[in-house]
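Weekly puzzle thread! Below is a chain. First person to post its structure in token form gets bragging rights.
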Amino acid sequence: AYWNDVGTIGELLQGYFDGLNREVALKIPEPEVAPGVWCAEGVDLSSVEIQGPALIGPECEIAAGSALAGPVVLGRGCRIGQNVKVREAVLLAGSELVDGSFAVGGVIGR
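Winning reply:
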């Protein structure tokens, strides 16, 4: 059994990351496109550097030169600009990071 009392942002992140690190028996809805990287169909990862674990939801757009260093979760419809770096973060659905942004260790919403 798994229990995480989500009372802080840190505990919320830990819950997401435990799932991605397979410390919790979850069925991740997206296909695993590389070891530890799950990505919705139709998302172009060809010009993105990814170190998993990472979960990329449907309708995400990730511009060239960006890098994801897991654990990372991108919710539905996230927009990531050019040369953006994301590490150990959760971006909620519809979140946007402009060109050159750096996001580490938090939850980002719109």
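Puzzle host: Confirmed. Bonus trivia for everyone else. The helical segments are 9-20.
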